[in-house]
Amino acid sequence: MSLNRLAGKIALITGVGGGMGATAAALFAAEGARVIGCDLDNAAAAATEKAVRDAGGDIHVMGGVDLGDAAQAKEWVDAAVAVHDGIDVLYNNASAQRFGALDELTVEQWDFTMRNELSLVYYTVRAAWPHLKRHGGGSIVNVGSIAAIRGVEFMPQNAHSTAKGGVVALTLQLVVEGGPHGIRANVISPGLIETPNTAPMLADPPDRMKRVVLDRIPLGRHGRAEDVVNAAIFLASDESSWITGAHLVVDGGGSVLG
């Protein structure tokens, strides 16, 4: 049941076409936020916008936005802020990556991952920064990963780990530079979350993944999109008004076991 924890807040959310982004758009709107989203996929963007509006939410979604291009990131942020003439929350959810062993991943795949997991966060924050300062501050919520804080046995993800580690480090610097302007910045690092991309793997997990990951989650289950988004709602709300620089790991306790 909604508690209107984000009532009236203007929330910019990236990558709302599916998975955690679509859930974020729906739950933020259900909590009273005025959501402005984007996605690279036009059809997915339109589908999320319709679903949230049909549920009574206030949302505008712009499709075809490539946040890995600095000019497009700025264009979207400026247009999004103009919808309601303000910004309270920037939720950097969008990402895309390539996986491969260190000696097999190509330079192009490495560059793709840096562009679409780290650079796009920087470009979007950089574009939002003057708006946040003018608006008197706000909350930045970045999505990291447990891959930023530990090695992962079941999948070679050196590029992904590096990019998400960069997101965590960037967030800490945003805390220092943003504090005098009332800008808070926090990062959420999810563990294994069920999304449309991971659902087939979780339905029939490889033995190694089951043994070294799923069977070692203290809370006994993999994550769901709402587990991450509920944490983001807290960090976006006034309930966390004196929280900045937090690195909130949402993984059912799996990383505790090392």
UniProtKB/TrEMBL annotation:
- Gene Ontology molecular function terms on file: oxidoreductase activity
Write down the superkingdom of origin. Bacteria
Gene3D superfamilies the UniProt entry points to: NAD(P)-binding Rossmann-like Domain (3.40.50.720)
* Keyword Transcription annotated: no
Q: Which EC main class describes this enzyme?
A: oxidoreductase
For this protein, the Enzyme Commission number is 1.1.1.-
Keywords assigned by UniProt? Oxidoreductase
Q: What is the protein name stated in its UniProt record?
A: SDR family NAD(P)-dependent oxidoreductase
User: Which organism's genome codes for this protein?
Assistant: Paractinoplanes globisporus
